[in-house]
Amino acid sequence: MNKRTVRDVDWTGKRALVRVDFNVPMEGAAITDDTRIRAALPTIRYLLDNGASVIVMSHLGRPKGTPNAKYSLRPVAAYLQHKLSGVTVHFAEDCVGPAALQAARALLPGEVLLLENLRFHAEEEKNDAAFARALAELGDIYVNDAFGTAHRAHASTAGIAAYLPAVAGFLMEKEISVMGQALADPTRPFAAVIGGAKVSDKINVLAHLASKVDALLIGGGMANTFLAAQGFAMGKSLVEADAIDTAKRFLDGVQASGCRVLLPVDLVVADAFSADAARQVCAVSEVPDGWMALDIGPKSLARYQAEIGNAKTVIWNGPMGVFELAPFAEGTFGVARALAKVDGVTIVGGGDSVSAVEQAGLASRMTHVSTGGGASLEFLEGKTLPGVAALSDKD
Ligand SMILES: Nc1ncnc2c1ncn2[C@@H]1O[C@H](COP(=O)(O)OP(=O)(O)O)[C@@H](O)[C@H]1O
Ligand SMILES: O=C(OP(=O)(O)O)[C@H](O)COP(=O)(O)O
Ligand SMILES: [Mg+2]
């Protein structure tokens, strides 16, 4: 990576404005997986140890441009305080405006200020220049350590670099180097497992992925949209109607790439989105009217496990089902167990996928656990991510 990093700066007396990805899975105010927070600590500690005051900013979820208590970063500030014992962690209730500015100016070297969710302002995702400039006013030097959000060209990940010197943090540097090395010349067979809920976001990278891998295993919400594209009635399942045409085109075109695409043959369906809903296993052609697919079924899992068992390199992003609800976790945990047994390189990325692998107790069995899901997939496409492109080049 030909970008300046935190090592290239004299931090004494400087205000470091650090973009992290603290978009952690939550249940109410409880953080269910702290991987992304732990992953950013080396950069924060380094800045504090080198004489800086540290202003930390992140998004959480998708509040769509309006303040919403459900997506507040306040619980994350409390957690950060717990992780950084001995350091004072302040919290600002808005990421811009007079209170944030005053808090940033009052910050002492060795102290931390976490700003409220950037996405409470619609300008963040629009990469609005005035908003980027308002954020930039809070610090002297900008650090991007948010690998998980590096595929977004937003005000805090891209636009802001026009107003401040911009360097990479340790996590950003590590992710790019580890993923680049692991995937430069992958040992084959190379399999990709794709699931999760961000269908329209991720469907566009599949064509490129298919040109790289030998097998593409699709599950989770992503599979529902593909099954709908094949004409199956999916009941009340999560299907992204806008992505169905793309799914069709992908399936029509993929044969030419030589990549085998596996879709579920059976599903675990439920009559409600709830752990105590009525549920059954059915063929993909038999989803009952009004029911929803919340996991891949046992036959599909067995096929996916066999395919993963043959592979020498596996990349996985996106849970196979709603693993947060115990009755629908088996597809995801089963895939995690299969990856843990692979004699080769295994990379798991994504806030929720990593949370699942942690819950399964298998994170240490993976070659690399990445904080980026969508970011990892776009990184694989080979183009420089907007959050990296914006950083200052090394001299
Ligand atoms: N069949 C499904 N229906 C609805 N949601 C699903 C389904 N399968 C997986 N999900 C959801 O997908 C979410 C994770 O998707 P995503 O954010 O794309 O993955 P990651 O964070 O690993 O990149 C999880 O919260 C999970 O509950
Ligand atoms: O959680 C994230 O991505 P992921 O779900 O693909 O792992 C990142 O924080 C990006 O969030 P976004 O997809 O709402 O821009
Ligand atoms: Mg996610």
From TrEMBL:
CDD domains: Phosphoglycerate_kinase (cd00318)
Complex formation: Monomer.
Name of the protein in its database record: Phosphoglycerate kinase
Homology family: Belongs to the phosphoglycerate kinase family.
Documented EC number(s): 2.7.2.3
Domain of life from the UniProt record: Bacteria
List of residues binding ATP: 202, 324, 350-353
Primary site of residence: cytoplasm
Organism name: Alicyclobacillus cycloheptanicus
A GO molecular-function descriptor: phosphoglycerate kinase activity
Keyword set, alphabetical order: ATP-binding, Cytoplasm, Glycolysis, Kinase, Nucleotide-binding, Transferase
UniProt: substrate binding residues: 21-23, 36, 59-62, 119, 152
Top-level class of the enzyme under EC nomenclature: transferase
Pfam families, per the entry: PGK
Pathway: Carbohydrate degradation; glycolysis; pyruvate from D-glyceraldehyde 3-phosphate: step 2/5
PANTHER family: PHOSPHOGLYCERATE KINASE, PHOSPHOGLYCERATE KINASE 1, CHLOROPLASTIC-RELATED
InterPro entries on file: Phosphoglycerate_kinase, Phosphoglycerate_kinase_N, Phosphoglycerate_kinase_sf
Catalytic activity: (2R)-3-phosphoglycerate + ATP = (2R)-3-phospho-glyceroyl phosphate + ADP
Tagged with keyword Transmembrane helix: no
Subcellular compartments: Cytoplasm
Statement: the UniProt record of this protein carries the keyword Transferase: yes
